[in-house]
UniProtKB/TrEMBL annotation:
InterPro entries: DUF1508, YegP-like_sf
Pfam families: DUF1508
Protein name: DUF1508 domain-containing protein
Residue ranges of every copy of the DUF1508 domain listed in the record: 61-105
Length: 127
């Protein structure tokens, strides 16, 4: 099953990614000023992925990617794929798993994985 993950960018804005059931990022959203905007986009994708367009593109180096859009507004860009078949599999995975995907929110944490030294200091295990 796929997963939506909300996080904060270094500039303080929010974004979300959709990951595959194997944990690979399939697409990354545009930046949002409010976390609620991410939540609304995720809800819309989950409720009716059929209303969104997948526009396939290629890079000069021969890689493939897509943009997810609705009403002409690009909402997300996929990772780069080595073949068109892999790109298609990425889109298929979104169509199949987005409606039932879980949501993780790492936006409230400064660091999803805190510095190990800080954890040890708090536990009194380092001097």
């Amino acid at each position: 099953m796929g997963m939506f993950v909300i996080s904060k960018r270094f500039n303080g804005e929010y974004k979300f990614v959709f990951t595959s059931r194997k944990g690979k990022t399939i697409f990354t959203s545009i930046s949002c000023k409010q976390k609620s905007d991410c939540e609304l986009m995720i809800a819309a994708i989950k409720e009716n992925i059929g209303l969104f367009a997948f526009t396939k593109n290629g890079t000069a180096s021969g890689k493939y990617f897509f943009r997810l859009s609705k009403g002409g507004l690009v909402l997300a860009t996929s990772r780069k794929y080595s073949t068109e078949l892999r790109l298609k599999k990425g889109i298929d995975e979104i169509n199949k798993y987005a409606p039932i995907a879980e949501l993780l929110d790492f936006s409230e944490n400064e660091f999803a994985f805190p510095d190990a030294d800080a954890v040890f200091l708090e536990a009194g295990e380092m001097d």
